[in-house]
Amino acid sequence: MSSVTEATIDWLFDALGQLYGGHWRRRCIEAGWGQELQGAWVSFDATGEWLRALQHLSEVHVTCGLAALNDAAATAVAEGRTAWPPDSAMLFAKSCRLRPEPLGLPRLEEAWRNVQDHAFAGQPYLHDAVAAAAEHVDLHNLRSASYHQLAEHRRQFAHYYASSNRDCVVERVARGESLRPRAALGYDGQRSRAELAERTGHEAAQQRVAEAGLPHSMNADQGLRSLKAALGRA
């Protein structure tokens, strides 16, 4: 990830000016973020406050922060309120948490719905990022999860999809890393219809065995006897 530079701050000031208009100009004058030149105020990081506050971040973080402010401004306008610019560089830095949407990834809730659709109905993954995070979810148990267990599965997915965890998807995308799932496993978007049908049939058979109370591993004779007993109880 490219680190924040003076050029990044200049770009950010221009973007904040476009977002907040006169409110941003007045805030810059009050805070001393700029200088009056030839009778006109020019906003820029005159004291270096913004560069010091953001230099530990990357340009991707700044993009996410600006997107967060844009969302907040849109909400304020929709509710008939005034959208105010940040009071300080440190306050802006707090909004710079990496998020899926500015990186071109599905929103967390959209991604989680996709994982459920994939587990229950075999729907393909929307994005490699969803597939990568879903590797950490037990899709088999997800299909029979209680409400409480479903919430835990969602928490697990969110941890690997969009959190401060260094190995989560948004962090990996920001670093430019590959999101290809483990080669030995692959994921459904890379499999043929025949492979998917075979896997679905296998999983369905495993589910029927589990519902009949059969052990996961047995020889042929044990399996036949247990299956007959299960059918006799039905």
Can you offer a commentary on this structure?
There is one protein chain. This protein is mainly alpha-helical and 234 residues long. Helices cover 58% and strands 3% of the residues. It has twelve helices and two strands, in the order ααββαααααααααα. The protein has helices spanning 6-20, 22-31, 49-54, 59-78, 89-94, 108-121, 128-134, 139-142, 147-161, 169-174, 193-211, 220-233, and strands at residues 34-37, 40-43. A two-stranded antiparallel ribbon has the order 1-2. Strand 1 and strand 2 form a beta hairpin. Helix 1 crosses helix 2 (22-31) and helix 7 (128-134) packs across helix 9 (147-161). Mean pLDDT is 82; it is low at 182-234.
Biggest sheet, in brief? 2 strands, antiparallel
Mean pLDDT: 82
Spatial gap, N to C terminus: 60 Å
Order of helical and strand elements: HHEEHHHHHHHHHH
Rg for CA atoms: 26 Å
Q: How many helix segments?
A: 12
Walk me through the topology.
Layout: H1 6-20, H2 22-31, E1 34-37, E2 40-43, H3 49-54, H4 59-78, H5 89-94, H6 108-121, H7 128-134, H8 139-142, H9 147-161, H10 169-174, H11 193-211, H12 220-233
